[in-house]
Specification:
- The chain is mostly helical and 346 residues long.
- The chain has one domain.
- The protein is 77% helix and 0% strand.
- The protein is built from 9 helices and no strands.
- It is flat, with a radius of gyration of 26 Å.
- The two termini are 25 Å apart.
Amino acid sequence: MSVDTALAETSNNLVYSAMAVYAIGLAAYAVDLAGLGDAARDRARERARSQRATVGASVGVAGATSGAAPRTASSGLASSGPSAARAEAAHGERRAARIAVAMTWLALLLHAGAVVARGVSASRVPWGNMYEFTLTGSGVVTAVFAITLLRRDLRYLGAFVIGPVLLSLGLAVAVLYTESAQLVPALQSYWLVIHVSIAFVSSALFTIAFSSTVLQLVQERREQARTAGRPPRGGRFMDALPPSEELERASYRLIAVSFPLWSFTLVAGAIWAEVAWGRYWNWDPKEVWTFVIWVVYAAYLHARATGGWGGRRAAWVSVAGFVCLLVNFGVVNVFFPGNHSYAGIG
């Protein structure tokens, strides 16, 4: 069956368009984070002024009982009130966040169009090589994030999700690009749809969880610095983000959903291997690393449920799991030949 080169070119143009919109969305998320940080600092200053004013008023009352002229804090509160009101208004409106979410949905539509056009151009599912897997996988990351936004306000994660998506698309078009073509015979199976589609969703959840985990580790260090009486370093926008415990819970929930999907990916891959090669397990590098990822995330879930292994230590296990995921994709696919050598590059 021939390839529709016009549709393949349309897919390429949609990818570039999506990248442009992603860049606008990323900038808007960054502006929103900066605004959240400013609002948080303004509220902290207002609380400090209010506390000082309360102390001053108490001293004034004590002075009045002894015959001294009472001091009032009304002027201080009045001068700081409008600033606090502006900070609250800026925090509540979050125009940049609304723009960022709108750009995320627009980029997702363009991205989905690129994936569909790529698949239709060759009359098959569009994940037959590393370029297509990156193209489709990054789109699934955006889709999962956008759908999650409908249920929970995770806009503070936007820059840390859209940034990697944009980077992945840049890598895809600059390094991994492969012309649209028919699938190799080994991939011409309905198991490709089942096995890889679930892997997409699971990997997307792992990616979002990784972003939340990184923020958790940074936030925890800042909280420890405050507890020790030291000012936290840099990242002032972090003041407006949830505490480390809440970020940790968000990561845990995402991984708890993703892990069964990855387990299904592993089992479905074994079944497909038996159909294609006559054995459920062949010690292929891809199979081994898929199992390694499963083991590491199983260790994370176990550590998370074990007393004394929550928080920071469990978070580093989660980070190790995502590093294994990256190795499985970017190293094993390219440098370790085996039954899964369908990268389409090199």
